[in-house]
Design goal:
The chain has 4 helices and 13 strands. By secondary structure, the protein is mostly beta strands. Strands 1-2-3-4-5-6-7-8-10-11-12-13 form a 12-stranded antiparallel β-barrel.
Length: about 300
């Protein structure tokens, strides 16, 4: 064999050895051992790593020991498919319970709450909102609705609304939607039909901006429109009034949070004209302080 042939053969053997060493070096430890085949046997793998330690957290502790088979929510008889919308639950959210002070020194109190009871797809919903000042209830809106889930994060609501306060009582049929819009906006839009051809539309939206995990800034907007005049309530047709607010709350827990804020209330069109004719302002700025809680 010539010198060139022997040199070529030597280089080929060196390259083969280098490649073999590189492949071996970059293989995981289990692949380099003789147990590679048994390690890849998924039928014998123990993914949990053995029994849980004696001081491991109880998975049912947060639920007070309640499971689908035991506790106050357990159902008798044969089990249905898990997560089959088979249990009733309830919740109460008091979004606003606040003291209000206007720029001219007037004081008032306000509340805004929502409660529901039922299942994921169908539930009974109660909404209530009102203002109290001068030792009497000035305005209150109470709705009793049936809510049905029609899409992810969205419910259609059908029911009745009753208005009371300083003016004559009014009753309405209500149809609306409520849910979570893209970019985490809470939206509530409801249309109403009342007696004597009255109609109304209420639009409300708010957003929770987390400054920290506990400090939350909440912008809120609400607008009311009416199809015809209602002089007994000093309401004109078209866009009647709107509210823009900003509240800053601190959540001691997710269930309870005091807050402070400011909001601007403005009346428009015929409603503003009626307010001026009655010697009232068409708009005012309000400072608020209150408590938000739910359970």
């Amino acid at each position: 064999m010539s010198g060139f042939g022997r040199k070529g053969m030597t280089m080929k053997i060196c390259h083969t050895l280098i490649a073999t060493l590189a492949i071996t070096a970059f293989q995981p430890a289990w692949a380099q051992s003789g147990q590679a085949a048994s390690a890849m046997d998924h039928g014998t793998m123990n993914m949990q790593g053995g029994s849980a330690p004696a001081d491991a957290r109880d998975p049912h502790a947060y639920a007070d020991g309640n499971t689908l088979d035991s506790g106050e929510y357990a159902q008798s008889g044969p089990r249905q498919l898990r997560l089959a919308d088979e249990h009733n639950f309830g919740s109460l959210l008091v979004d606003r319970l606040e003291h209000v002070r206007t720029t001219d020194g007037a004081n008032a109190s306000a509340y805004d709450l929502q409660a529901w009871f039922g299942r994921d797809y169908d539930r009974l919903v109660i909404k209530a909102e009102g203002d109290y000042s001068q030792n009497k209830l000035q305005e209150a809106r109470t709705e009793l609705l049936w809510g049905h889930a029609v899409a992810n994060y969205w419910d259609v609501q059908l029911g009745v609304r009753h208005d009371s306060g300083s003016g004559p009582n009014r009753s309405w049929l209500a149809l609306g939607v409520q849910g979570l819009a893209p970019y985490w906006f809470e939206v509530d839009a409801t249309a109403y039909m009342g007696e004597n051809g009255r109609s109304a539309l209420r639009l409300a939206a708010d957003y929770a901006l987390l400054l920290t995990q506990r400090l939350i800034l909440q912008p809120r907007a609400e607008f009311n429109l009416y199809g015809k005049q209602d002089p007994a309530w000093n309401i004109g047709s078209g866009l009647s009034d709107g509210t823009l607010g900003l509240r800053l709350r601190y959540e001691f827990s997710r269930q309870i949070a005091p807050y402070i804020g400011v909001e601007r209330v403005e009346k428009f069109g015929q409603t503003a004209d009626m307010a001026r004719d009655a010697g009232e302002r068409a708009g005012e700025t309000r400072w608020v302080a209150g408590l938000r809680f739910w359970f």
